Amino acid sequence: MTGTAPPGTSNSGVSDARAGNWVDRFAPAFARPYLRLSRADRPIGTWLLLWPCLWGLVLAAANQGAHVPDLKLIALFAIGAIMMRGAGCTYNDIVDRDIDAKVARTASRPLPSGQVSIERALAWLGFQLLAGLLVLMAFNATTIRLGLTSLFLIVVYPFLKRITYWPQVWLGLTFNWGALLGWTAVTGALAAPALWLYVAGIFWTIGYDTIYAHQDKEDDALVGVKSTAIRFADRTKFWLRVLYAMAWLAMLGAIVSAGVGFLAYIGLLFVGIHFLWQIRWLDIDQPQICLMIFKSNRDVGLIFFGGLLLGLWL
After folding, report:
1. CB-CB contact of 206 with 228 (8 Å)
2. CB proximity list for 269: less than 8 A, separation 6 or greater
3. pLDDT: is 3 or 281 the higher one?
4. Which domains can be identified in the chain, with CATH numbers?
5. CB 230 within 8 Å of CB 220
6. 44-63 and 236-258 are packed helices; what angle lies between their axes, rounded to 10 degrees?
7. pTM exceeding 0.90
8. What's the angle, vertex CA 192, arms to CA 261 and CA 48, rounded to 5?
9. Are 293 and 44 contacting, i.e. CB atoms less than 8 angstroms apart?
10. Which of 36, 116, 162, 185 is the most buried (most CB within 10 A)?
11. What is the pLDDT of residues 213-262, one digit of tens each?
């Protein structure tokens, strides 16, 4: 991270991004605040948004008797995930700018630190939404309708932390909508495997975002922000066992109902092992450990995707 410029300049990094990330090192100075608004310096959120899309895509391909996924659809979902994750983060930062200014980990973000004005942030949001819409229009009619419906989930999400201890549930509903889109992009209609996959993603997201929220629980409590991390408190590991068990069982239901090859079950076995590893090593009072384990959920997505691919090919 370039720490030499004073806060409020385009060279000022953000405290919760990895030092030396590609945005701080390679992006033009004028673009850095906007890329930070989109969390381009922290790609983990893009992966977590993309994996359910790819799960649904491969699961549907297996259900249709294909042996390889459609590479064009994979590319579209990848671009769409980048655009919509960026739009969602920009929108959240616009809504939460006053709260972010009071939390140590987020005070250096572009809006509370003055790197970007609210007017320019809104313009950047509009650009990303337009790009996401153009990608969405490349899909079939069912997928387009479902994609547009997800805007309601995106708009409501940042307000929930003010009124409920369960905003992670709504995040799960939002972040895993791609499981439905991936399925319908191949089949043109919803079916039981897609719904199983969606439920799996919801429980998975509640789990990993609870871990993430433990980083800010003291500051959140002071400013009145609610989360499952505050609600679960010292019983977090118990609830993670419940949440991850439900996610694993729903993944199993998706595989069984879609008729994927037996090698998909090997991937699912390793997903379960990874869940157990997360719970074993989590220390909710150590923010760096919480962040590390949260980020490891990218590997959960990869492992399950790899198992589905093996089941598809073989």
Report:
1. yes
2. none
3. 281
4. 30-313 (1.10.357.140)
5. yes
6. 30
7. yes
8. 75
9. no
10. 36
11. 999 888 788 788 899 999 999 999 999 999 999 999 999 999 999 999 89
